[in-house]
Write a structure and sequence with these properties.
Elements lengths: L4 H5 L2 H67 L6 E5 L5 E4 L1 E4 L8 E2 L4 E5 L2 H9 L8 H10 L4 E9 L5 E7 L1 H51 L15 H33 L1 H15 L5 H32 L8 E4 H19 L2 E6 L4 E4 L1 H18 L8 E9 L2 E8 L7 H6 L19 H11 L3 E6 L4 E8 L6
Parallel strand pairs: 9-11
Antiparallel strand pairs: 1-2, 1-7, 3-5, 4-6, 5-6, 6-7, 8-10, 11-12, 12-14, 13-14
Helix pairs in contact: 2-5, 3-4, 7-8, 8-12, 9-10, 10-12
Length: 492
């Protein structure tokens, strides 16, 4: 996606790159200027120390032989390569000897260190300048002019110590500042090079890192547009880098998967209500129409009304189960959770269903050795367990041996497992066991039994609400339904 410069600068990656570049440049400028100033001060201090040493040596020469010896020493030292600046002038400032031809006005008027660097011209540079300005036909060749131009320097700066001798003559000892100035020039070039490299580095960082981030954001935006267009199966891209983009995409994908699950559940509820509840409603209407179609006794009308009420109660239970499942799958329950003893819940449910089991000829047994505490809702757990036990009693009556149902509580690692095992025909097929927990699903062998096909669906929703798991396993013979709860035992 091509972006203009203003659009690029609105992106976070470009702004961060510009901010880091500005920060690096500011730090580099401050550091370079600090180092330059520190180095200049050090060079100046070193220069002053050198000048002081020179002045002490000249003072000793003056003490040995007076002005003639001082002049000879100054002339000797001023002719040496790389010599300091030496100058002896009369009381009026007229230069008598040394290697300085001219000075900036006012330098010799103040005794002591010069307040600031001053300009000067070395002895003989005036002649070089004059030769450089002469035309070629006035005694100098082009080669001589070039040599003179190469040798001539103009605009030197220096610092110096000005002293008045006892005879009121003036002595100046100084040092050229060309070396510190060259050092500052090197630092300036290094600064420009560093800034250029940082600018290039910032552009490279933006190009390789910023553009990659922009591409990932564009891909996320494109996937988001598809999802907003109605394609809930779409997911945000995950590169596997493990960075913040991947973490954000993974969280959003989990949210989209949850939304898709809820939408699918809503669709299933709508379809199931339209198909599976149509039969009992039709049966109610036919019963009422048959009752009104002819002349019947009062007892016939009473029986028809009682049957209608019973059928209506069953429909209300079915609707309540559907609403409970949907609410639990959405992760919401108006009921509070607390510390629940599964062993006690098992004893209550078994006690409730013992008459039903005895009437059906089923042996209802328990295997509970100790208390097992979990964090949950006692009513929901009891309802789910009641549905499972009711199913086990109904479907164990066709067992070849004595029908039996066993309810057990045991620990398995960090989980607490509540299992209901019967010895009926069970569900041999793995696919059927997976489908048995879906809403309104009734397998072929169960259609002869009364029910709506919501018992295991409600139990699965209850386990999802408790962050647990519902497993349907072969009982060899029969079926084993296992409710696995995460342990939340409180020993306090």
């Amino acid at each position: 996606m091509a972006l203009s410069v203003p659009a690029i600068m609105k992106t976070t990656a470009a702004r961060l790159s510009a901010l880091y570049l500005l920060l690096f440049a500011l730090c580099a400028v401050l550091l370079v200027f600090y180092m330059t100033s520190l180095s200049a001060r050090m060079l100046t201090a070193q220069t002053q120390e050198t000048i002081n040493d020179e002045v002490l040596g000249l003072a000793r020469a003056y003490q040995r032989g007076g002005l003639p010896v001082l002049v000879r020493v100054v002339e000797q030292r001023s002719r040496q390569p790389g010599a300091n600046l030496y100058l002896i002038a009369d009381a009026n400032g007229q230069i008598l000897t040394g290697n300085v031809q001219s000075l900036e006005p006012g330098v010799l008027e103040t005794e002591g260190w010069t307040n600031s660097p001053f300009s000067y011209q070395r002895f003989g540079e005036g002649e070089l300048e004059r030769q450089r300005n002469l035309p070629a036909d006035q005694g100098t060749t082009q080669s001589e002019q070039s040599d003179a131009q190469a040798q001539g320097e103009k605009g030197h700066n220096a610092i110096a110590l000005v002293l008045r001798l006892p005879n009121q003559m003036i002595m100046l000892v100084g040092r050229d500042l060309g070396e510190p100035e060259r050092f500052r020039a090197v630092i300036r070039r290094a600064l420009m090079l560093a800034l250029g490299m940082m600018g290039l580095g910032g552009l490279l960082i933006w190009f390789f890192v910023g553009r990659a981030a922009l591409k990932r954001i564009d891909s996320v935006s494109e996937a988001s547009r598809r999802i907003m267009g109605g394609d809930l199966s779409g997911r945000l891209p995950v590169t596997g880098a493990g960075d913040e983009f991947d973490r954000l995409s993974e969280n959003l994908n989990a949210m989209l998967a949850r939304i898709a699950t809820l939408n699918e559940g809503l669709k299933q509820v709508s379809d199931n209500i339209a198909h599976d509840l149509k039969t009992p409603l039709t049966r109610l209407r036919n019963r009422a129409e048959a009752t009104l179609s002819g002349k019947h006794k009062t007892t016939d009308y009473r029986q028809a009304l009682e049957g209608t009420i019973a059928e209506s109660d069953q429909l209300i239970k079915t609707f309540n189960a559907i609403l409970m499942i949907s609410r639990l799958e959405a992760g919401y329950s108006s009921e509070n959770t607390s510390r629940v003893d599964l062993a006690e819940a098992v004893r209550d449910v078994v006690e409730l269903y013992e008459p039903v089991a005895e009437e059906a000829g089923v042996s209802l047994q328990t295997d509970v050795r100790e208390a097992a505490f979990v964090n949950g809702n006692r009513e929901l757990i009891g309802q789910a367990l009641s549905n499972i036990v009711d199913n086990a009693i109904k479907y164990s009556t066709d067992a070849n041996a004595q029908p039996a149902v066993r309810v057990a509580v045991e620990r398995a690692g960090t989980d607490v497992r509540l299992s209901v095992v019967d010895n009926g025909h069970g569900i041999p097929d793995d696919g059927d066991r997976a489908r048995a927990t879906e809403r309104f699903v009734r397998l072929e062998k169960s259609r002869s039994q009364p029910g709506s096909g919501l018992g295991l669906s409600l139990a699965k929703a209850v386990m999802t609400f408790h962050n647990g798991r519902l497993d349907l396993l072969p009982g060899n013979p029969g079926l084993s339904v296992v409710m696995s709860f995460p342990s939340r035992e409180d020993h306090g």
